[in-house]
Specification:
This protein is mainly beta. It is 4% helix and 51% strand. It has one domain: Porin.
Length: 332
């Protein structure tokens, strides 16, 4: 049974913009404080500004989208501090967490070939893509802030990437194929070495259905990068060994996930509450990830006109491949 109309936004699937120019501006402040772990429990304050623009039907089936973002403020918890591997607030951390700059611009061009097929090319903001994930991303209204939920945690998708994505919708299946440079696309010099270190091939198949009349999305994601990574097993060798701190080519990830609504707004099926989950496996070497899982509940407030979002989740991830590098990482 297909989901109720209108068709919902889908995970990591590019969509063409409506005709004409559209602009939006947002100014957001954050206050965070650690309540457990070894992080400083002082309050941390940050703010960000976002300018988004889209212009649809510049030519037949063609559209352009841009996102200029700036953030600044106190340091954030994450990258090992407080016992968490990822920043606890991705919106307070990016773009400054991954480059020596507070500002970055993402720009993509989309060509709609038919109502079911489009191709998008350019510099992608991965968080913008993840925001379209039902129940987790908030559909642009603000979803989970923890990076382990708000962004793909597979170690093969940087926060900003340069490449192209093909999306094909064939009811009830949606296929997307994403090819991009393996390195983070920030700074002025990322253009100089595009694809010198290899390429990432990222494919997703989504089955859109309905259970008891409520939308559900079930996804299979396969990713392979040809970039070289650290050979963790070589770190166990003597520093005098020629193979010490060597590299290994090829980083892989496979995962399944679901988002199932239990209640939804009849006028907008993407507003509602439901459950979600994910199980993923990395190769462990050179991908730092062995395995991860997460389950949770989330969604929008059921009252009409209220746009608040809330949720809770639990998950774990293991890194490897050797016992001295293996540890548990809390996901939420």
């Amino acid at each position: 049974m297909p989901p109720a109309s209108p068709p919902p936004a889908l995970p990591l699937a590019a969509t063409a913009q409506q005709g004409g120019p559209q602009f939006s501006f947002g100014l957001t402040t954050y206050a965070d404080a650690a309540i457990e772990g070894d992080a400083d429990d002082d309050g941390r304050y940050s703010w960000r500004a976002d300018i988004k623009m889209s212009y649809g039907e510049i030519w037949d089936g063609g559209s352009v989208s841009a996102h200029l973002e700036y953030n600044d403020g106190d340091d954030f918890v994450g990258f090992g501090e407080g016992g968490v591997i990822w920043p606890t607030n991705v919106f307070a951390a990016l773009p400054r967490a991954t480059a020596n700059e507070n500002t970055t611009l993402s720009l993509t061009v989309t060509q709609q070939f038919s109502p079911s097929t489009n191709l998008t090319f350019g510099k992608f903001n991965v968080i913008d893509l993840a925001e379209q994930t039902p129940l987790i991303g908030g559909q642009g209204q603000g979803g989970f802030q923890y990076t382990g939920l708000a962004a793909p945690g597979n170690f093969v998708l940087p926060p900003y990437v340069f490449g192209g994505m093909l999306a094909v919708k064939t009811d009830p299946m949606i296929f997307s194929f994403f090819v991009y440079d393996p390195n983070n696309a920030q700074g002025e010099d990322f253009w100089d070495n595009l694809f010198d270190d290899g390429a990432v091939y990222n494919g997703t198949v989504t089955f859109a259905t309905a259970l008891n009349g409520q939308p559900g999305f079930y996804n299979l994601n396969l990713v392979h990068s040809t970039k070289k990574g650290t050979d963790y097993e070589s770190l166990l060798l003597s520093p005098d060994d020629d193979s010490f701190a060597g590299s290994k080519q090829g980083v892989s990830y496979a995962g399944i996930s679901f988002q199932q609504y239990l209640w939804s707004n009849p006028q907008n099926p993407m507003q509602g509450w439901g459950v979600f989950g994910q199980v993923g496996f990395g190769d462990g070497n050179p991908n730092p990830l062995d395995a991860l899982y997460l389950v949770g509940v989330g969604g929008n407030a059921p009252s009409p006109g209220v746009r608040a979002t809330a949720g809770a989740s639990h998950g774990r991830a293991t890194t490897g491949p050797t016992s001295w590098v293996r540890r548990w990482m809390p996901m939420a």
